[in-house]
Design goal:
4-stranded mixed β-sheet; 432 residues; 4 strands; alpha+beta
Length: 432
């Protein structure tokens, strides 16, 4: 049928609903008929027939293109502009709103005004009772994937989930995608993570490999060391080892390293073998995660670690990450110099970590970490999982004391108090 439609001189005899149903049907069936999708999009854009599309038709259309991985910029621009110009989004049901945001995030089509309009509409809703779990999950997933941190939207969805009497209607993918979105967007909401943890543990056997990896990575990324959650998921995670892709293997290993949970039945020879099988497809980020996991494993000789063929590559990837020096770091180092501490910058330690600076205090080597906003969750003062892991591993492996200079303390001091602030930090250290 697709070829027959493509062969037509024009699509003028099709009403908008029929065009929408046509591409939706192909996408639902998993059939990527590029010429059909191209012809339909060109027809809609050229004739500017958007006003003939009902909200469900618009949503189904962009959903179809995203599902078959066809990005038609002019079509997506036209649909987004039409939605933004609408007097109200009340005619969009929750699933249509969620699917629309999901489609734009999936295709990577950037239209800030559309995302803002949809988010504001959801936030202004009296309640979210009409949203099915998948719609809620897809909505926050879309905003996180698009890199849009609409705090009021995330807050409203999280509060709704927390206040729900039960999460039984959330399937494992909904649960995992939800916390993944908050972790990716760096939005802290402890009560949300506590509630999801409770239900995830209760239904852990229902999780597939992707859901397990996303769930555990999310908690570790947020610096939430929920050991009960991680211990509960060891058997499930171990049973799925053969199903993990390269990113999932690395994410799970890194997550357990951050939380500090030993899992010998998961990280055994089978896990190592799986890593070896995928050694050619690990990205640099994956290799860095595996190296950090190996550092933790090697602290206990009884724990299995990376094989040499992967260890060398992961170590090289870890130490070759180019350091970035911020203005904040320059300011702190300048003040360290001004009080005679002679700091050495960007020092590569035996562990493989780089420290922003090291100084000698009363004959002792002290590491300095200038922690900017990226080291903390959102606008909170809670360190990220990466920050927690670095602090722990540098202290335990390199055997030196670390002093953190967080940006919010430095900013509060102001220029007149910077020197006093640095001095105070080291007075505190000397008194320990």
């Amino acid at each position: 049928m697709g070829d027959q439609v493509v062969a037509l001189k024009h699509l003028g005899e099709f009403i908008p609903q029929e065009l929408s149903i046509l591409v939706w049907a192909y996408a639902t069936a998993g059939v990527r008929h590029s010429k059909l999708f191209e012809k339909m999009a060109n027809h809609v854009v050229r004739l500017d027939v958007m006003y003939g599309f009902k909200p469900q038709h618009l949503s189904n259309t962009v959903w179809a293109y995203a599902t078959v991985c066809i990005n038609h910029p002019k079509l997506f621009e036209a649909v987004a502009n039409h939605i933004v110009k609408s007097d109200s989004l009340d005619r969009f049901d929750p699933q249509a709103l969620s699917n629309t945001a999901w489609a734009y995030a999936t295709t990577g089509f950037n239209h800030p005004k559309l995302f803002e309009t949809v988010a504001n509409h959801i936030v202004e809703s009296d309640n979210l009772d009409r949203f099915y779990p998948q719609a809620l999950s897809n909505a926050v997933w879309a905003y996180a994937t698009a890199g849009i941190n609409h705090r009021k939207l995330f807050e409203k969805v999280a509060n709704h989930i927390v206040e729900s009497s039960s999460l039984d209607r959330f399937n494992p993918q909904n649960l995992a995608n939800t916390v993944w979105a908050y972790a990716t967007a760096q939005v802290s909401h402890p009560k949300l993570f506590q509630k999801v943890s409770k239900y995830a543990i209760h239904r852990k056997e229902e999780f597939d490999s992707q859901a397990v990896a996303n769930l555990l990575w999310s908690y570790a990324t947020m610096g939430i060391t929920d050991k009960h959650l991680f211990l509960s998921f060891v058997p499930t995670a171990a049973n799925l080892v053969d199903c993990y892709n390269n990113q999932e293997l690395a994410n799970i290993a890194w997550a357990y390293a951050v939380v500090g949970v030993d899992a010998p039945s998961l990280f055994n020879e089978t896990f190592i073998k799986k890593c070896v099988e995928k050694k050619g497809v690990f990205k640099r980020e994956n290799l860095c995660q595996l190296y950090q996991w190996h550092l933790r494993q090697s602290k206990k000789k009884s724990n299995a670690g990376l094989s040499l063929e992967i260890l060398d590559r992961s170590h090289e990837a870890f130490i070759s990450v180019d350091p970035t020096v911020s203005k904040l770091q320059d300011d702190v180092v300048a003040q360290l110099s001004s009080i005679g501490l002679d700091p050495k910058e960007e020092v590569l330690m035996d562990s493989g970590y780089r420290l922003d600076a090291i100084v000698k205090v009363n004959g002792k080597t002290v590491g300095i970490e200038v922690d900017g906003p990226s080291h903390f969750i959102g606008k909170s003062r809670s360190p990220t999982g990466s920050t927690i892991l670095k602090r722990r591993q540098v202290s335990s492996i390199d055997g030196i004391q670390l002093v953190s200079v967080p940006y919010w303390k430095w900013d509060k001091l102001g220029k007149s108090g910077e020197e006093a602030g640095v001095s105070a930090a080291f007075v505190t250290f000397e008194e320990r």
